[in-house]
Every structure is written in structure tokens, then in C-alpha cells.
Amino acid sequence: MAKNRDLSKLLGDNTNGIIDNSKITLDANEIPNLDTAKITSGSFADARIPNLAASKITSGTFADARIAASNVSQHATSFDDNKIVNDISTLGLRVHSQENLNASNSNSSSFDVFQDSSAISNLTNVSRNASEYMSSVQVSQITDFNYTMEHTSGSNNTGIGTPTNDVSGSYTRTTRAKFGNRSLYGMDSINPMFKWTDSSGYTGDFTFQVWFHTNGISDNSYYPGWLLNFGTSANQISSYKWRSGFGSGYWVLYRDGGNNAFANNGSSSWFHHAVARQGNTMSIWSDGTRQHTWTQNASSEPLKEIILGGTNGAIHHSDTNIISKFYYDGFVFDRGIRSGFEPSNSTISLPTSQPSNITVDNTSATGSFTGNNITASSTNKMGAVITYQDNAGTNALNTDIVLQLSADGGSNFSTATMTALPDFATGIKMAKVNDLAVTAGTSLKYKISFANQASGSKEARIRGVSLQY
């Protein structure tokens, strides 16, 4: 006979007919067909659903954070629109260059090849060259005041003032010429044949030179050749033939309050005279030999008049017998020091042909300029393509040429790291930056800065800029 069992030993202290969970141990085979409706609370650990089939997910939406970028990109073909954007910038610059177009904007790009200065601002030690580029090294041909004696009319190039007396066809001759077939011929009058006047005066460096022929003048009167007026009679520089008594047959240079006899009559010769000012140092030469050098303050004693053949009545000019009947040729006034005419030179080389206008370097090692503001939709990313030229040396991107972009009107600039693109044209390079993060805004502009520039050794020229936005 079976022994009676005390169910309380099996059920524990539970008197409600429910077995304590801790007394039950089930393996996977014990609940092969458990109805999911029976699972009404709790959560599964990640390890409990390691291989859930995608077919089991038939409704609902995954949160963005649940989908990794790689899960998408591995199934999509990569596309870089920067290549198209850069090509559009390049095309726009090329069209503007070939058609000589002024700066223009589209909905997403701007283009400027410096046809004019309308789209640039804030120039600091930088200039736009007439050859359509921006640079802190400007080599400019001086055409301010050059009179070529081949002219048969009063045409001349002025830029430091307008002559009050100008030469005309009636004062040119084919009788005698130092160069070419024609020279200027002086008037029989006390009035200058040529006179340039500027009441404020010119304070920069300059080189003056002229050839003149005495035409066999006699020794019984005073003959003015040329005169440079610096505002006071004591500081004028002039050449003239003194009347008998000073020294028969001598020409005199009047300068800095004194006289110097320097040459014989030369009635059958051409004389060459030159004057140069560099800073406050002045020198004067006769036929290539320096006659005198001295210090003269350019700011307080600016050049105010240039006279050929005549007088302004300021020095020794009360003689009513003054006449001027000389031939003049090779007259050039350069705003700048012509090479070889530095005041420190005791001798200069005489020109063997009609002097052309010189070129003058205006060089700054650093400089910058900006583009005008462009109104666009708000953006926090910008790009750009620039075209540039190594006119001398090799300019390093991001060091010698630095590009910055701004979307808030220049209040904040982000510095770009440009990379090279294929050359735009022969000798014209190209560089770009894409998707540069900038402070968000609707007023877009660029800034380009130069560094380490030096005439003849490192000269960068910016030829064009295209913004992308």
C-alpha cells in the first residue's frame, strides 16, 4: 500500500494550488508552442532574438537612429556633385574671360575676372591692373608725361597736371632732330613753348631728361633752356645761357641757390640734361656727368612747374631780350626713377634713341582685397574656384595666396584650404575649395590675401574668382 504523500511538501507553503516558480525548471522543449498571447509583460534580452527574420517585421517604423549610414550607403551609388559645381565655376570664368564680361551672379554662383573694379572693395596694398588681374606687385608703365618729338600736333600724355602752354604743329621742325625726323622748335617770345603747372605740386620720385640744340645762338643775351620749379626761386633748377660777363660761351645750371658752369656753347651740338629725385635726394647731370647732388624735402618743396623754352619770370628773368630759339628732342618726364638714373650715380648713360616711358614697381609683400557682398539664401557652407598666375616664382596655395569666405557680410571669415585643379589656360593655374563651413548668413563674400610677395621673385596675380553657394 502506497504511502500517503504530503502535497504541502511538493507545493511548499502554497495552499492555493499554485506551484512556486522557483520550483519549476523548463528547457526549450518544454514550451515548443507557447502562445505569444501568454507573454504580456517583461522584455526580451538582445540575446533572446539573435536571428529574427526580416519577414517577421510586417508593420511599424524604425527610428532613424536604428539604421546605420553604412546600411544605406552600401546599397547606393556614391555621387559627388562638387565635380559639377567646379565645372560650372570654371565654365563661368572662361565665358567671362573670353567675352570680357563684368562681374555677374547666378542663383548659386558668382563670377568675376576683373574686367573692371565694380565687384571688388577694401583694397589694401593691392591694385587692379588694366590687364585684368589683382596683385600686390604692380609693374606699371608710366605714361603720365611723355612727349615724343615725332608728334606733329599738340597731343601728349598727361597725368600729373595739364599743360597751360602746349606745343603744336607750328612749333615742330624737320630741320633738325636728335631722334627720328622731327623736333620741337622754341618760340621768339618770353612765353614758354611748353609749361606744365600744378599748384599743389608733385612729391613723388621722378626722372626728367631732355636733349636740346642751341642753334648757334650769339653771346649777347640770356637764353633759357628748361626750368623745374619747386615753389621758391632758391629751389628752382634750370639751364640757361648767361649773357656776356659771366663767362662767354658758358651754359649755367641754377640749382639750390647757386650756379654751376658746365659746358661750352655747343652751337653745333645737342646737349643732354637730366634731373632725378629719389626720396629727398636730388641730382643733376649734364651730358651724362653729375654736376651736383643735394637734399631737398619733397613734401615741403614739391615740383610745381616744368618749362621748356621760356621763363616764368621767377629768376633772372627781367631781361626783355630773353629769347628761346632752341631745338628740343627726347623730352621725357617719368613718375619714378628710371633705371640707371638713381641720384647716387656719378654718371648716367645717354639715351641712343627716343626714350620710352619707364615701368615702375609698386610692390607690397602683403595685401588683400574682398569681393562685394552678394545677397543669397541663407547658407552655412560655401565653395570657390580661383584662377591665378605665377608671374614670378611659385606661389604656395594657402600660404602666399590665402582665400577666406564669409556668409555674414565679412563679420566672420572662414579660412579655406585650397587644392589645385588642372590649369585654366597656359600659364594660368586654378584652385578650389568645396563645402567650407561658414557662419550662417545671407550676405556672401570672399577675401584674398597675399604674402611673401617680391617684385621679380614672387609675384601672384589673381585672374578670376567664382563663388559657390
Low-confidence stretches: 141-170, 243-250, 312-324
Percent of sequence in beta strands: 35-45%
Estimate the global geometry from the Cα principal axes: rod-shaped
Total helical segments = 3
Q: What does it look like?
A:
The longest helix is centred in the first third of the chain and has 17 residues. This protein is rod-shaped. Strand 1 and strand 2 form a beta hairpin. It starts with 6 loop residues before the first helix and ends with a strand. It has 3 helices and 29 strands. The chain is mainly beta and 469 residues long. The chain has 2 domains: 158 residues, Jelly Rolls; 215 residues, Sandwich (Jelly Rolls). Strands 1, 2, 3, 23, 24, 25, 26, 27, 28 and 29 form a 10-stranded antiparallel sheet that branches. Strands 7, 9, 10, 12, 17, 18, 19 and 21 form an 8-stranded antiparallel sheet that branches.
